[in-house]
Amino acid sequence: MPKYLHTALILLIFAITGSTAAYIGKPILAWCGISKQAVGIAGYIALYILVITPIYQVLLLAYAALFGQFNYFWTKQKRLFARLFGRKPE
């Protein structure tokens, strides 16, 4: 696959993942009974970020698998978590 098509595919996967995670984040918070009035706007934003982050990571790998780019994103995910938790990337 030409490099520019690979780059476009990667960007498409990021875009679809971000949109999906943002779309399902609010209903999940509503289902948990969390609202802006209950926790305030700052608390709501903080909880939204905490909820959406793991959802995003899972969706990213799922969409990557659908588009045939799982190995690329799995390598990036492993490197990200290694850096977050203080281990050397493999």
3D structure, described in words:
- By secondary structure, this protein is mainly alpha-helical.
- The chain has one domain (3-84).
- The chain is 83% helix and 0% strand.
- It is built from three helices and no strands.
- The chain has helices spanning 3-31, 36-66, 70-84.
- Helix 1 (3-31) runs antiparallel to helix 2 (36-66) and helix 2 (36-66) packs across helix 3.
- The radius of gyration is 16 Å and the shape is globular.
- The two termini are 25 Å apart.
- The mean pLDDT is 89.
For the termini, the CA-CA separation is 25 Å
Helicity level, as a percent range? over 70%
How many domains, in number, for the residues?
1
Order of helices and strands: HHH
Low-pLDDT regions: none
Main sheet record: none
Strand tally is: 0
- Mean pLDDT equals 89
What is the C-alpha radius of gyration, as a whole number of Å?
16 Å
Structural class: mainly alpha
Percentage of residues in strands: under 5%
User: What does the overall shape look like?
Assistant: globular
Query: How many helical elements?
Result: 3
Quaternary class:
single chain
